[in-house]
Amino acid sequence: MKNTRLHYLLPLIILAMLLQTTGYAQEQESDSTSVKKFDMEMEPTLGKKDVDTDGKPIKYPRLFGGITFTRIDWGFSRLIDDGSFTLSPDNQFLDYSRASNFGFDVAQIGLRFTDMFKMYLSTGFEWNYLRLKSNIILDTDATPLAYRDSDVAYSRNVLTSTYLRVPLTFELRSRKNRHGDRAKIAFGAMTGVLLKGTQRLRSPEYGRQKFRDNYNLASFQYGVFTRVGFDSFGVFAKYYLNDMFENSPVQQNVNNFTFGLTLGF
Fold first, then answer.
1. Residue 106 backbone class (left: φ over 0; alpha: ψ -120 to 50; beta: rest)
2. Using CA atoms, how far apart are residues 115 and 129, in angstroms rounded to an integer?
3. Do 42 and 15 contact (CB within 8 A), yes or no?
4. What residue numbers bound the domain in which 222 lies?
5. Contact residues for 17 (Cβ-Cβ < 8 A; gap 6+)
6. Which of 243, 43, 25 is nearest to 124 (CA)?
7. Which pLDDT tens digit goes with each residue over 189-210?
8. How far apart are CA 118 and CA 206, in angstroms?
9. Rounded to two decimals, what is the model's pTM?
10. What is the pLDDT of residue 43?
11. What are the boundaries of the signal sequence (predicted)?
């Protein structure tokens, strides 16, 4: 049976878990009765939550934060070579059939200034996947970035980068509609620290192979992003201002642009 890539299964597994486990009971007390209210929360959080409290006055500014699992991004990536989506001849070895991006936040702290505006700093993880077209093996010991051609016809040749991401977000939201939902727009700056790089290969001759190295990937990345959505769903776009590779003059001005869907927004 043909195996499916983990980074395509993972978002579906997470979505299924969220839909099955995010129903929760919240006890609400009044002067004479205790009522249990059932709700659906797409942003499970441990800590002080950024939610409206029924039956109690809301005071601003209000601090919130804690452990969370939200802003799950899943989308596509495009490399930009000196302002063009077409790779230069020297960078054709990086040509890809498919590129994707996946990430989520696990902790946050922020301040809601009004019912319609808040800012927060969060942290999480992010993966970029580049499925290479060429049968090449990247050199794990070379600086600048280098590679060698292989005689093996790989059915899979994927360069993966894993980053610890730290975005600073400014978020605006509309008033509630009659169903209690809101439109939202968020924007901000993001940074990230490289955790590892991996090249994954698969072929009939050697089966699955995995090599780990930084592959001259940028040890520190930064950029800008935006999210637009309604209720807990939306779309995102990110542009990384730094070069994708460092200490590699030929790959100077090769940047990454990603866009896709976001859940828990």
1. alpha
2. 38
3. no
4. 43-263
5. none
6. 43
7. 999 999 999 999 999 999 999 9
8. 52
9. 0.81
10. 60
11. 1-25
Paired tokens of 131 = 């499925």
Tokens of 116: 């319609």
Give the C-alpha separation, 74 to 261, whole Å: 6
With respect to residue 1, please indicate whether it lies within any of the assigned structural domains. no
* Cβ contact 226:236 at 8 Å: yes
Number of domains in the chain: 1
Report yes or no on 62 lying in a domain.
yes
Question: For residue 86, is it within any domain?
Answer: yes
Model confidence over 166-197: pLDDT tens digits? Answer: 999 999 999 999 888 999 999 999 999 999 99
Instruction: Tell me how far apart the alpha carbons of residues 13 and 104 are, in angstroms, rounded to a whole number.
Output: 14
**Nearest one of 62, 42, 44 to 52, comparing CA atoms:** 62
What does DSSP say about strands 117-132 and 136-138: parallel, antiparallel, or unpaired? Answer: unpaired
Q: What are phi and psi of 165, to 5 degrees?
A: -100, 145
**Distance from C-alpha of 119 to C-alpha of 127, rounded to nearest angstrom:** 24
In a domain, 33, yes or no: no
Residue 217 has which token pair?
Answer: 């990937």
- The angle formed by the CA atoms of residues 141, 144 and 150, to the nearest 5 degrees, is 60
- How far is CA 8 from each of CA 67, 89, 188, rounded to the nearest angstrom? 25, 30, 27
